[in-house]
Specification:
The radius of gyration is 18 Å and the shape is globular. The mean pLDDT is 95. It has a single domain, classed as Rossmann fold (3-Layer(aba) Sandwich), CATH 3.40.50. The chain has helices spanning 18-43, 48-65, 89-98, 139-152, 171-183, 203-206, 212-218, 231-239, 277-288; strands spanning 80-83, 159-164, 188-194, 197-198, 201-202, 222-227, 249-254. With 289 residues, the protein is of the alpha/beta class.
Length: 289
């Protein structure tokens, strides 16, 4: 098995030109995707479609944006990242390993009996995991609480929370959005992995979310939309946060489930289907081109 994640830098050089930063992030994201496909095939379970749709977002945050120190994961004023769509644990673990939170060799134990790398992340078991997530609709309320604590502490630490778009059908998210808007938590950023698909069907056929941007604005949030696979655009957006003073940030990242693998892209069945050995080979070949 290849161990492409070992080749990742812990951070990209922010002194480089934007195009070069984006190129490095693109290369890192490709390596994360390679390892993710291998990981899920070896474990026989996982959520490859949603992992691949959010890879560019996590690569940009961890390699360029977040103020975190893998050698001191409990640093009080560190930025927090909450993976609310906890079923994308494989992506989170690979990214954390890539920046040095734990030995990448542990990834081989993903979802194995007694492994700390569970199908859903556990903050007591894995360095760098900030919240136990998996049951959808829990991560955003936790992130709001973290942002309230930062405000009460007069701390500059920021809180980022990645939610799935199908996850927004959970009512707890809208209660959290109401609180975040009411309290003007400008250090809080919610990123919606807007790939348009959930388990088995498009979100708009299951329980319509649109007009999503207008709904978030009505709850008192500043809204931005971005191509969730464009590293340069993601960098530019994250660098100018907060979008407005005294308003939390709601980022709609337009993505594609299974991106960029041709036979996975925009196909609902890849929400949790495990690739065969032949499909792994085909996917890695596409990533190499």
């Amino acid at each position: 098995m290849t161990r492409a994640v070992h080749l990742l830098p812990e951070r990209i050089d922010r002194g480089l030109a934007r195009d070069e930063q984006a190129r490095q992030l693109s290369e890192a994201a490709t390596l994360i995707r390679r390892r993710n496909i291998e990981l899920i095939h070896a474990a026989g379970l996982g959520h490859v479609g949603g992992d691949l749709s959010a890879t560019d977002i996590l690569a940009t945050l961890y390699l360029a944006i977040l103020n975190v120190d893998p050698s001191n994961p409990e640093l009080p004023d560190r930025d927090r990242f909450v993976m609310s769509k906890g079923h994308s644990s494989g992506l989170l673990y690979i990214t954390l390993a890539s920046v040095g939170f734990f030995d990448p060799a542990l990834l081989d134990n993903y979802a194995q009996p007694l492994s700390p790398l569970n199908g859903h992340p556990d903050r007591k078991a894995v360095p760098g995991v900030e919240a136990n997530t998996g049951p959808l609709g829990h991560g955003l309320p936790i992130a709001v609480g973290m942002a309230v604590a930062a405000a009460l502490d007069h701390s500059g630490r920021r809180v980022f929370c990645l939610v799935g778009d199908g996850e927004l059908q959970e009512g707890s998210n809208w209660e959290a959005l109401m609180v975040g808007g009411h309290r003007g938590l400008e250090q809080l950023t919610v990123i919606v992995d807007r790939n348009g698909l959930q388990q088995g069907a498009p979100t708009e056929e299951t329980s319509r979310l649109e007009p999503l941007a207008e709904k978030a604005r009505a709850f008192g949030w500043s809204v931005a939309e971005v191509d969730g696979h464009d590293h340069s655009a993601l960098l530019e957006l994250f660098e100018r946060l907060p979008l407005e003073t005294n308003r939390p940030n709601f980022v709609i990242a337009h993505t594609h489930k299974g991106h960029p693998i041709s036979f996975m892209r925009d196909r609902a069945e890849w929400h949790h289907r495990v690739p065969t050995a032949d499909e792994v080979s085909r996917a890695l070949e596409e990533l190499d081109t």
